[in-house]
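A protein record pairs a chain with a discrete description of its three-dimensional fold. The following entry can be read in just this way.
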Amino acid sequence: MPTKLRGAPAILIKSPKSTILLDCGEGTQNRIINIGIGIQKIDLIAITHMHGDHVFGLLPLLHTLSNISQTPKLRIMGPKTLKDFIEENIKLTLIKNIDIEFTRPSNELCLSDLRIKGFEVDHGMESYGYIIEFAKAEKKLKVNELIKAGIPRRYWPQIKRGKKVTIDGKTFDPSDFVEIRNRKIVYSGDTKPIANTIRAAYNAKVLIHEATFTSRLKNEAEISNHSTALDAAKIALEANAEVLILTHISARYPDPYEHLYESRRVFRNTFVAEDYDYYIVM
């Protein structure tokens, strides 16, 4: 639940050409306005599950959108009951005509420079995490292979650009020294720790994983189908993620130190998300 220090779940993914909102808890539109991004710029809202802390900010946002744009168009992705929830409430609250395209998480959706697809998680109800990938893949040099082959550094930029280089009569193929990796952001939504998240987050640039509790309350995490900070760290480690960002911290923890300490013992590159934090994915 919201506290003085932390709002309900809402994560904005902003690329040069696309904007995706992951979950829409109470007060989300106010926070979007505060960071200076126009609500009408949102291309897609992806909801993980139908618990109120993840959807109660959706109707106010739709109401505002309908007032600032003539027949606004919006894509929304989420559980089966999300469509009924939105359409019934639009009818009851007399929100003006708004054009919504509903998509199921199992369908990959391609935006201008991002693509998104859901994967099933375990929260005791229909629940999803989301994989967001940049349309343009990242080229990464296999430095150890380059050094082993004795290729001088001055040739590395050419190889990264996909050009063959010839040294002392020997030609080297760039495909042997360049790894193509999609830049991937993965959001777990609310879930107990499961292998499906590891598979989805494999080699992710950023894994945003819920850590409602620390191991001190592990029994409560298991009963409520949530994860601990230690659970999230183990998943990030097994998935070979670059960065772990912990979210969905219980209001019982006014200070995230306990979460950081627990997670960083297993996965060093861990952060706890605070309201208005931002992270740049390179």
Remarks:
- Residues 140-176 form one domain.
